[in-house]
């Protein structure tokens, strides 16, 4: 049993898929067949009440159990069902894939009729009386205490928690760009060394050419005078 859920819907969500499907089908059938019932969670069971508890449904690891508040109805349908426990007025279902919903629906409808007849002639059984009939105690329904692990000695391995590695931010990379020569205001001194050397070499060649041209012109004039 589990006391963590406060509603039947929350209880169903906590169950494994196979148990959830089986119990949801029975819960839906009870709500549909027993008009006016009130659904609630109590003692780790799904309770269905009509002027007092009428059914209780429990899902355990190996089976599902339906508790019926009217023992006469269990006696009436016991021949058509397997897993009937008359002394607890309950039905156990060990094969969750083969739940006889049609037979259970008749039990639910007959239980509603029997409850209304009981209310006409007297009063419905109390919750304490039904818990005694179903052999369910508050002690059985208590939630298990939490498990606390305490290290007993130095030899016991301690839990190691790895700290996340924080990477240091990398230094930004500076990208150097060569200057362009589209700006007419740029002077030769601001140009790169290789460009400046090329210009100087060009000026030297031009000066040498002019000197040679001047010498040839001078020689030519001298020969003409002679």
Layout of secondary structure:
Elements: H1 8-13, H2 17-33, E1 38-42, E2 45-49, E3 53-59, E4 64-68, H3 71-77, E5 84-85, E6 90-93, H4 101-121, H5 127-134, H6 193-225
Antiparallel strand pairs: 1-2, 2-3, 3-4, 4-6, 5-6
Helix pairs in contact: 2-4
Write up what this structure looks like.
- This protein is α+β, with helices and mostly antiparallel strands and 226 residues long.
- It folds into 2 domains: 8-134, Alpha-Beta Complex (Aspartate Aminotransferase, domain 1); 188-225.
- It has helices at 8-13, 17-33, 71-77, 101-121, 127-134, 193-225; strands at 38-42, 45-49, 53-59, 64-68, 84-85, 90-93.
- It has a 6-stranded antiparallel sheet, sandwiched between helices.
